[in-house]
């Protein structure tokens, strides 16, 4: 698509007239006489047609991206504040397929629909898409233009028998603020990708302490629906500020599945942060998908580990995500992201009486370790200082306690604990200090010496925000030997945590 020409049209016509022009041009060029009546609608009268059909051949997800781009181009600051990231087609398909397991002939709502890419796939998978569009779904958004585009897309794709579908479904597209409106259409279920925006606490919501718009959206959905499928940042699984959200979720739904996605090597959103003023414009959100229902007699809670995959494995990952679900006992304080083959290790670790915090002195001592606080594929603990901006210094009461921590923190065990309980940009003090410590840990002097030597020979530098950050990346063979020493039963499984992908060929 000639983006320069697109920009020129935006400059000349403005956002709204540009999109009416785009839709009219597309309809004028397709061989669908049964749809030409749309051009008689008042919105499309006297609309300038373009020489190029900007949306020809685009999927609904790609149209969403184009609309996202046009919002950013028209008003950069408004786009940044909006916090909207439109759902890719393949992710929308995953969500729509999970929605098919809900009871039939119910009313759905898409409460922040944008141009309707989630609704499109939900409708497409129905036995009678046209009837479903007319009778079983509402799209709600504050953006009137986005809703017009959505109505156009859905009409073009699903009009069969109703020759005036565009007119007859107008009432299904509601311009409203889902969060604040008390006059919303009645519904049973919701499918959504809410905006992710840090906001001021709002005492009207139980999740006020979260200070995030998506938490408020989920709360409203939880309180107005008997089930939902939603994209959400996976940080809701562990952040203390989301305790109230997790509590609401567990107290209102008996069947919950949570899918958690990392942001490397591939990202579930795969998009660009249009309008972002950061130098890094990649969308780096670690996302999750929640599927919640009320149709179980007993509580069933399932969750995946933090999933990684390569770009070429994306479809295979999305086709197989149910295989990674692990059923556990739900907890309000945290949703641990566990994998099946390490569930026994988690159960064993939780039985340990001591945690790392028991070894930590609040006052400086001669026994200390430095822990760089931005993990990605590994975590290290160092006796020597490193040149970096973010790290934590731990002081220990005794040499043995320091040596125990030296082994544990340089093994894959700490890295696994972080991925289970966090997995975000940094390692929190809470995650670090709650690491369960085994009752009896063999102190292998040879291993201690080799870790110290590795600090000298395996230093790495990563540039971040214009600054060099030093770290130590131990040889995988050394880490493997530490794992075998401490956790002989789980050594191989722990080693696999450092892989770029959960997909095995």
TL;DR?
This protein is of the alpha/beta class and 505 residues long. The protein has three domains: 57 residues, no CATH class; 200 residues, Rossmann fold, CATH 3.40.50; 150 residues, no CATH class.
Explained architecture:
The chain has 505 residues and is α/β, with parallel strands linked by helices. The protein has three domains: 57 residues, no CATH class; 200 residues, Rossmann fold, CATH 3.40.50; 150 residues, no CATH class. Helices cover 37% and strands 15% of the residues. The chain has 18 helices and 15 strands. The strands form four sheets. The chain has a nine-stranded mixed beta sheet with strand order 3-2-1-4-5-7-6-8-9, with helices on both faces. It has a two-stranded antiparallel sheet with strand order 10-13. Strand 4, helix 9 and strand 5 form a beta-alpha-beta unit. Helix 1 packs across helix 2 and helix 9 packs parallel to helix 10. About 2% of the residues have low confidence.
């Amino acid at each position: 698509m000639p983006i320069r020409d697109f920009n020129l049209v935006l400059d000349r016509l403005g956002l709204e007239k540009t999109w009416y022009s785009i839709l009219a041009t597309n309809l004028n060029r397709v061989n669908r006489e049964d749809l030409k009546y749309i051009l008689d609608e008042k919105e499309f009268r006297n609309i300038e047609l373009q020489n190029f059909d900007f949306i020809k051949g685009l999927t609904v997800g790609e149209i969403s991206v184009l609309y996202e781009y046009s919002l950013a181009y028209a008003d950069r600051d408004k786009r940044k504040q909006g916090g909207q990231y439109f759902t890719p087609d393949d992710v929308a398909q995953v969500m729509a397929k999970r929605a098919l397991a809900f009871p039939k002939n119910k009313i759905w709502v898409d409460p922040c629909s944008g141009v309707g890419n989630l609704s499109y796939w939900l409708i497409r998978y129905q036995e009678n898409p046209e009837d479903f569009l007319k009778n079983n779904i509402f799209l709600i958004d504050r953006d009137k233009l986005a809703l017009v585009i959505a109505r156009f897309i859905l009409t073009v794709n699903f009009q069969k028998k109703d020759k005036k579908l565009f007119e007859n479904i107008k009432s299904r597209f509601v311009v409203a603020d889902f969060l604040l409106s008390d006059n919303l259409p009645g519904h049973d279920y919701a499918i959504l990708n809410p905006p992710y925006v840090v906001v001021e606490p709002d005492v009207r919501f139980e999740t006020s302490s979260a200070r995030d718009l998506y938490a408020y959206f989920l709360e409203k959905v939880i309180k107005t629906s008997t089930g939902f499928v939603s994209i959400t940042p996976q940080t809701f699984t562990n952040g203390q500020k989301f305790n109230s959200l997790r509590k609401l979720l567990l107290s209102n739904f008996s069947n919950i599945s949570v899918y958690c996605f990392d942001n490397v090597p591939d990202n579930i959103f795969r998009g660009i942060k249009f309008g972002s003023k950061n130098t890094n414009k990649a969308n780096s959100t670690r996302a999750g998908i929640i599927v919640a229902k009320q149709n179980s007699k007993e509580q069933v809670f399932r969750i995946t580990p933090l999933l990684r995959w390569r770009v070429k494995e994306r479809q295979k990952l999305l086709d197989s995500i149910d295989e990674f679900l692990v059923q556990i006992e739900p907890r309000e304080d945290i949703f641990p992201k566990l994998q099946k083959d390490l569930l026994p290790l988690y159960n064993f670790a939780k039985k340990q009486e001591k945690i790392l915090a028991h070894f930590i002195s609040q006052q400086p001592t001669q026994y200390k370790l430095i822990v760089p606080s931005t993990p990605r594929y590994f975590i290290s603990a160092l006796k020597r200082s490193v040149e970096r901006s973010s790290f934590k210094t731990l002081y220990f009461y005794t040499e043995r306690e320091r040596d125990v921590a030296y082994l544990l923190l340089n093994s894959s065990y700490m890295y696994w604990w972080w991925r289970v309980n966090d997995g975000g940009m940094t390692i929190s003090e809470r995650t670090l200090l709650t690491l369960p410590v085994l009752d009896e840990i063999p102190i292998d002097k040879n291993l201690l010496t080799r870790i110290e030597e590795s600090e000298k020979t395996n230093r790495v530098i990563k540039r971040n925000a214009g600054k060099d950050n030093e770290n130590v990346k131990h040889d995988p063979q050394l880490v493997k030997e530490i794992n075998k020493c401490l956790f002989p039963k789980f050594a191989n499984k722990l080693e696999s945590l450092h892989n770029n992908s959960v997909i095995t060929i």
